[in-house]
Amino acid sequence: MERPARRRVPRRLRTPYAPALALALVAGGFAAWAGQDWYDAAHDDRAAYAVQRDRALAAGEQAVQNLNTLDHRDLDRGLDLWEASTTGELREQLTAGRDAFAGQVKEAETVSTARVLSGAVTELDDRAGRARVLVALRVTVRAADGTRTDKDSRMLGELTRTDGRWKLSALGQAPVGGAPAG
Amino acid sequence: MSTTRHHINRQRLRQARAARPRVVEVRPGTRRAAAPRGPEATAERASGPARPRARRPWGLVALCGLTVLLGAFAGWAHAEAESLRAEPARSNTALTDVARTSEVKGQVAEAVDRLFSYDHADPAAFDRAAKDLLTGKAVAQHRDLFTDVRERADARKAVITTAVTETAVERIDGDRARVLVYADQSSVATAGGKAEAEQDDGVYAAAMLAVDAVHRDGRWLVTALDTFGRT
């Protein structure tokens, strides 16, 4: 009895356009603000720089560890890894001296393993793709007779970014004895 | 008993009847313009041309849809921005904050120079350095590291000099920082066995350590010394 009467009420006139429009505008405002915020966060130069810093350090620590790890029973794999971790002059040196070095290690029958104690980036040129890292390293060498010796090394490494990847382009130990480093 | 049940039943029936049309009527006003479903709905759609389906406020529906979309985008963009900011790379301002990085480097290098140098003739300077520059567990660590060294240096009237050669900031997170330090240590004895003195003189020992520091009252204090398990 009630149903037909109710149905004929023109609901259209009661539709809340104004509040809906206001709500849409508020939502639009939020969307614009959040979008701008997101854009800023994604295009933060410092953040991009920080990401490069962490990438360079991770690559540097891994490369330094790789270059101080070698098993005489698996020389080829170890030396391939050396070459894969390096670039530029350092890679050329390693490639040139590879056979002679492999012979020495084979004869000495040593197994070297390295552990990174700590590492940090000292310089980073994001655009040029160059970085300098300090890596504190502990190298354990097991000789043919089974004796183990630990040696701590203060490594200085230079990294170059090639094809988007950071690789070691120079590696040495920090000089000892009052001489200024570098 | 029976009357009550009758009453309840009748009430339910009425409620059901009242609820049905309400569902149909609300539809044109709701945000979603979903077509009525089910056999019942089809029947009602066919019930007459008087149904207000043709007068559906599409503009309102579109407006509401837009609101939902914009709101969803805002929420999503906000979440994306937050997750970007939460990246660990960003909370570490080593190198990205150039001024702070060089400040930490400079002060930690100076602190290590002072904390690891000892002159038998001026032990007060050493104690003063420890008092000024150390805090927290670094106090005990420094004391443990130097108890023996100090005794030997006093006996031999030695001067131990430490010079930092390289520093690199691993991490700066607000008021806390960690710095990797390379230093050279030398000791010169002015008394004791000649052989011993000759052995030691001019010999540099390579040292490396990681220093945790906290920024307090405008300067960086050492909170922990990590010698990587070596003394």
From TrEMBL, chain A:
Keyword annotations of the record: Membrane, Signal
Location (main, coarse): membrane
Pfam families to which the protein is assigned, alphabetical: SnoaL_4
Signal peptide: 1-34
Localisation per UniProt entry: Membrane
Organism the protein comes from: Streptomyces labedae
Ranges for domain SnoaL-like: 69-170
Name of the protein described by the UniProt record: Nuclear transport factor 2 family protein
Automatic annotation (TrEMBL), chain B:
Keyword Transmembrane helix: yes
Membrane-spanning ranges: 58-77
Region called Disordered, residue ranges: 1-53
Keyword Transmembrane: yes
Annotated Basic residues bias: 1-20
Annotated keywords: Membrane, Transmembrane, Transmembrane helix
PANTHER family registered for this protein in UniProt: OUTER MEMBRANE PROTEIN RV1973 (PTHR37042:SF4)
The protein's name: Membrane protein
Organism expressing this protein natively: Streptomyces variabilis
